Amino acid sequence: MSAPTKVTPISGFPEFLPAERLVELHFLDVVREVFELHGFAPLETRAVEPVERLLGKGGDADKEVYGIRRLAADDDRDAALGLHFDLTVPFARYVLENAGRLDFPFRRYQVQKVWRGERPQEGRFREFTQADIDVVDVGELAPHFEAEMPLVIAEAFRRLPVGEFRIQVNNRKIPEGFYRGIGISDVATTLRIVDKLDKVGPGPVAEMLIESGASEDQARQVLALASVSSTDLSFVDAVHALGVRHPTLDEGLDALAAVVAAGMEQAPGVLVADLRVARGLDYYTGTVYETQLVGAEAWGSVCSGGRYDSLASDGRTTYPGVGISIGLTRLVHLLVTKRGLTASRSTPAAVLVAVVDEASRETSRRVATALRARGIPCEVAPSAARFGKQIRYADRRGIPFVWFPGAGEGGDQVKDIRSGEQVDADAATWQCPPEDLRPAVVTP
Amino acid sequence: MSAPTKVTPISGFPEFLPAERLVELHFLDVVREVFELHGFAPLETRAVEPVERLLGKGGDADKEVYGIRRLAADDDRDAALGLHFDLTVPFARYVLENAGRLDFPFRRYQVQKVWRGERPQEGRFREFTQADIDVVDVGELAPHFEAEMPLVIAEAFRRLPVGEFRIQVNNRKIPEGFYRGIGISDVATTLRIVDKLDKVGPGPVAEMLIESGASEDQARQVLALASVSSTDLSFVDAVHALGVRHPTLDEGLDALAAVVAAGMEQAPGVLVADLRVARGLDYYTGTVYETQLVGAEAWGSVCSGGRYDSLASDGRTTYPGVGISIGLTRLVHLLVTKRGLTASRSTPAAVLVAVVDEASRETSRRVATALRARGIPCEVAPSAARFGKQIRYADRRGIPFVWFPGAGEGGDQVKDIRSGEQVDADAATWQCPPEDLRPAVVTP
Predict the structure, then answer these.
(1) Which one Pfam family would you cite for this protein (chains A, B) (predicted)?
(2) CB A180, CB A246: distance < 8 Å
(3) Residue of B11, B23, B37 to mutate when probing chain A, most A C-beta within 10 A
(4) Is A437 part of the contact surface with chain B (CB cutoff 8 Å)?
(5) Which end of chain B is more exposed for a tag (fewer CB within 10 A), N or C?
């Protein structure tokens, strides 16, 4: 088909070149592998939900939804539909819709595109992939799942080229109990103000707290709590030292201590109790998570989540859950643009099988078939150009090996075009070096 | 969050249960593996294109497009955007936009959701996944790629539980040359009528041809050509026997003979020269493909494509291409609903590690970590219920093994809950039977 001549990027809708997409695929493969090793079942939900369900979530979500509409719709019989802006709302609906056909506790992972109609800015996208895990149960959810979530993420991140990272954990009950213990009753407003700490700093936060009705002493105490952080259990004593007691605070400290203790055992140095972490969303009721890459704290959290007592409810049954979500497109995009991550080649092919002349293309094709039968990705040269040109074809794509049928005495030869070394080889037995079998993720 | 109580499926937007999704994932994994073995680079494009680009394709595509719109848009500065209805239009745009950064011939695969605002009916979806491969070049595209496409698909299908299948191939130049050779000048209209043969049969097609201006003899010849089919090169003689000669016809017969000869060599019995295959889309100019599962011809083509002389053009440079596309959601949905395909379990976990009591959960967790370190997907029991209940937990999900820490003399034991056999085992060395490591695709 012919295409209009104007082709331009659309702001907020990122696209990768092939080598960058190979980096993203590596990330997708690793998170999937780790999620499956931990027994999370794969799930996909449709991209659309009724608009009323998307907007029902509260907060300012209504600012972010894309509605969809059949351009040729000749009637209004279609319900108003919108693209999902996260994977939690559709998962909650899926659980309600299929409750009778799922086994609880239900562990699922879900890796899909989501869409948000926000104003695009650097590192903020209107279309991006999220990778979520959640555990949901009926009525009650065992607390050990709250310790499990960040440790699954820690295992995935350890296998990824993201460098050092910290998963910050808090428990909503700690600030809630603490605020009540010092006589603050509007917990939600106080949390929302504390959530701005990273952006505006403690001075302005104290002012906002006082504006919202807190005394100077209360504001000082709120900031003191937010400054508590430890990679071990010492945060408990640090909170006690502030002299505030409340049953909800004690519950929260016990719960967070269990999560941090599991982290100390299984991923030393990765989990940090950080009592500043609030998470903006109202529905978290227990542990909350944020994740920062060391040295790239300005990127903000790359993986967040928490526990919600009521992920879904049909009026009779309540489904509590806990989940965590990797902002995958954003993470990969930042690593590609800021740290120069790329792939060692722009194609899966490890070998280019050269073609001596068009009449012998079938010979080259048979070599390729023999290599593929043993799991070696390869490509047959597109034309029987002179060998120098065929080698350049491989070189431009980063394909490490070029195969020359009939080049040896009574057999083929293969050339490592990086070293120039060329040796006799048989397609039925040649071993591709394991590190060359797949494109590797590299930094320049 | 709380959810509105009404949860209903949306017609045309299919969702799978976990075991069904595992079937779909198996299909996705196999096609990806085969595409990568053949050196196709992975690519994803954004889900949206400018509406004018989507509608510019001609035909009745305008009936099928979903437009998107920010619900909270306070201005009209956003260009009109729509969801893509196939992967060819966005790929053509991507090639134009990135031509300077791609190496040609460019081989890519693309597996993504597409959306069509059609009236839903059985096996027709408004949201579904397509899996495409294409090769695109600058100016000229070598004809051997036209033989390669269906053979890549044949290799993927042979590895999938789809049973016997046939890939029907034709070349647009054959009917075009033949029609001109018998004096029919309106080739496009004639092709569109012949395309209805499967639906309405030869009688009504002859009538429509005559209505469109053909003589009875011309109509008879058109139907005679459409009835030619062979799994070898005999179709060439069968066409010659009809007594029509035209240079374009000869070109088409030579090209199709080359494709069928490659098929006879590489995938005997799979490729069928079928001169009835027309494909509705105007932009095909050479070989065209359709694929049918034997015994399920009523499902129609599950994988189609063809050659286009101008996949994309910026006015100065033309990019010819050839591609083929698997209608993956539709194929899997039909196999699941009509042939009962499902997965052997509803979770990736091969092992459930039992928990003796909550105090020893950490012991069970260490077993799980040891198994995962050797690539064995597993799950720790959600509660320290009595073992009968923990075994039922595994059984309901189809998890084949339950691991009992400390059950043996000085060690652990593992039970195959299908046979009941329970043996001593060490998490550092136990071998999971390879056939149990991943969920298998099975028929009841």
Answers:
(1) HGTP_anticodon
(2) yes
(3) B37
(4) no
(5) C
Of the candidates B137, B118, B123, B102, the one whose C-alpha atom is nearest the C-alpha of residue B14 is B123
Interface of A with B in 400-429 (CB under 8 A): none
Q: Does A121 touch chain B (CB under 8 A)?
A: no
Token representation of residue B271: 């490729």
Is residue A4 situated within a structural domain?
Answer: no
**Whether residue A153 sits in one domain with residue A81:** yes
For residue A171, tell me if it sits in a domain. Answer: yes
Q: Quick one: pLDDT band at residue A280, thresholds 50, 70, 90? A: low
Q: State which residues form the domain around A381.
A: 351-438
In terms of Cα–Cα distance, which of A282, A9, A200 is closest to A120? A9
Q: In angstroms, rounded to a whole number, what is the distance separating the alpha carbons of residues B232 and A100? A: 53
Same domain flag for A261 and A396: no
Query: Residue A97 domain-assigned?
Result: yes
Here the CATH number for the domain that contains residue A431 is 3.40.50.800
B298 CB within 8 Å of a chain A CB: no
CA A292 – CA B253 distance, rounded (Å):
62
Identify the residue whose tokens are 């040896």.
A408
Contact in structure between A344 and A335 (CB atoms under 8 Å): no
Is a pLDDT exceeding 80 seen at residue B4? no
Cβ contact A62–B71 (<8 Å): yes
Q: State whether B361 and A396 contact (CB < 8 Å).
A: no
Whether the per-residue pLDDT at A77 is higher than 70: the answer is no
In this structure, which amino acid lies at residue A317? T
Q: Please report whether residue A265 resides in a domain.
A: yes
- The mean per-residue pLDDT over the stretch B146-160 comes to 97
CB of B111 closer than 8 Å to CB of B131: yes
Write down which residue in A294, A315, A342 finishes a domain. A342
Q: Give the other-Cβ count within 10 Å of B381's Cβ.
A: 22
What's phi and psi for A80, nearest 5 deg? -65, 120
Shortest distance, CA A160 to any CA of chain B (angstroms): 16
Contact call for B4 and A53, based on CB within 8 A: yes
Q: Assess whether B138 and B192 both reside in one domain.
A: yes
Q: Which of residues 214-273 of B touch A (CB under 8 A)?
A: 265-266
Q: Closest-CA residue in chain B for A23? A: B42
Q: Is the pLDDT of residue B334 over 60?
A: yes
Q: Tell me the pLDDT tens digit for each residue of B264-287.
A: 999 999 999 999 997 766 678 999
Give the gap in angstroms from C-alpha A387 to the nearest C-alpha of chain B. Answer: 17
Which of A382, A77, A354 has the alpha carbon at shortest distance from B119?
A: A77
- Using the predicted structure, report yes or no on whether residue A63 has a pLDDT greater than 80: no
* Cβ distance of A66 and B70 shorter than 8 Å: yes
A167 shares a domain with A25:
yes
Whether B258 has a pLDDT exceeding 90, the answer reads yes
* Co-location of A216 and A98 in the same domain: yes
Report the CATH number at residue B234.
3.30.930.10
Residue B57's pLDDT band, with cuts at 50, 70 and 90, is low
- What distance in Å separates residue A273's CA from the closest CA in chain B? 21
Count of structural domains within chain A: 2
State which of A342, A365, A388 marks the end of a domain: A342
Alpha carbon distance A93, B337 (integer Å): 23
Q: Which residue of B has its CA nearest to A312?
A: B2
Q: Which residue has the higher pLDDT, A122 or B380?
A: B380
Q: Are residues B318 and B220 in the same domain?
A: yes
SS3 of B218, please?
helix
Residues A104 and A196 in one domain: yes
Contact in structure between B41 and B102 (CB atoms under 8 Å) = no
Same domain assignment for residues A219 and A272: yes
User: What are the φ/ψ torsions at residue B120 (nearest 5 degrees)?
Assistant: -70, 145
